[in-house]
Structure formats: C-alpha cells, structure tokens
Amino acid sequence: MSALAMTLLRLGFLFLLWAFVYFVVRVLKNDLYGTRITSAVTTTTGQSRGQRDIPESQSVPSSRPSRLVVVEGTLTGTQIPLASSAILIGRSPSCTLVLDDDYSSSRHARIFPQSDQWLVEDLGSTNGTYIGDERIQQPTIVPLGAPIRVGQSTFELQR
C-alpha cells in the first residue's frame, strides 16, 4: 500500500472518530438539557396562543373539572382545557404539556378521563408522580383541586 493511500485511510478514520464524538456529545446534551421551551405569547384577550375557547354548548358541568392548571414550576399559570382525550406530560416535544425540568422523564405521566372521572398514571418515570405526598403506582383518581406533582411542577384539576 502506498504512503498516500495509508495517509488518506488514517485521515478518514480520524474524521469518523471525530464525527462519532460529536454525535455522542450532541445526544448527551439533548438528554441532559432537554427541549428548549419558549414562553407563551399572550394575546390581548389574556389567553395564551394555542388555547381555544370551549363553546358554551360543550362546556363541562360545574361539578366536573374543566381545565388542568400549572400552579407551581416553570410554566406556572399555564392552563390546558380538559376534553375527552388524554394529556401527556413530560420533556418530549410530542407531549401535550412539555416541561423544561431535569427531574421529569421524556414521557412522565398521563392524565386521562374514564367514566366521569379523571385519572393520573405514571408512565414508568424515574422520579415518580405524586398526588399530594403519595407516590402513585397505578392509575389513580384525581380529586378536584388535589396537587399532582411531576418533577418540580405541580398541577391541579380546576373547574
């Protein structure tokens, strides 16, 4: 093998090694710091962009919760209207409520309706999901106003 071919082989190997290191560092950075979240832009009506008004004909009876409210954490004040679909909470951009929190998992918890009640389920997170001070192990009914803790954020179901 000629010296030129050997030098090109060495440079190619060095390039592949540095590319591998770059991608490893990039994956670690994304895993440690998560997805960057920008603050919601508030319109003149006081609603965050992306929130929808629920028509009066579809409003939920007053005895049932109608929204999930973040009461503590980086997204304090955020409200998500409760519909008939589940709310996925975590760091992943595919979640309904994306948390910028190192103590939450990518897909941490799920809040979902089941026969006129709302339940919360931990999705195998490392740090757990809590209702009050109790860590839940299975889907659990969430009473109105009970604090749900995921990482460093706290939520409540409100009317």
Provide the fold topology.
Elements: H1 3-33, E1 67-72, E2 79-81, E3 87-90, E4 97-98, E5 109-114, E6 117-122, E7 129-131, E8 134-135, E9 140-141, E10 148-150, E11 153-158
Parallel strand pairs: 3-4
Antiparallel strand pairs: 1-2, 1-11, 3-5, 5-6, 6-9, 7-8, 7-10, 10-11
Task: Put the structure in a nutshell.
19% of the residues lie in helices and 27% in strands.
Fold and architecture overview:
The protein is α+β, with helices and mostly antiparallel strands and 159 residues long. It contains one helix and eleven strands. It has one helix at 3-33, and strands at residues 67-72, 79-81, 87-90, 97-98, 109-114, 117-122, 129-131, 134-135, 140-141, 148-150, 153-158. A hairpin with a 2-residue loop joins strand 5 and strand 6 (117-122). Mean pLDDT is 81; it is low at 37-62.
- What best-fitting shape do the alpha-carbon axes yield? rod-shaped
Please report which band the strand proportion falls in: under 5%, 5-15%, 15-25%, 25-35%, 35-45% or over 45%.
25-35%
Question: Which stretches of 5+ consecutive residues score pLDDT under 50?
Answer: 37-62
Strand ordering within the main sheet:
2-1-11-10-7-8
How far apart, in Å, are the first and last alpha carbons? Answer: 77 Å
> Structural class of the secondary elements?
alpha+beta
Rg value: 22 Å
Largest sheet entry:
6 strands, antiparallel
Quaternary structure type: single chain
Number of strands: 11
The number of helical runs is 1
**Average pLDDT figure:** 81
> What is the element string, with H for helices and E for strands?
HEEEEEEEEEEE
Amount of helix: 10-25%
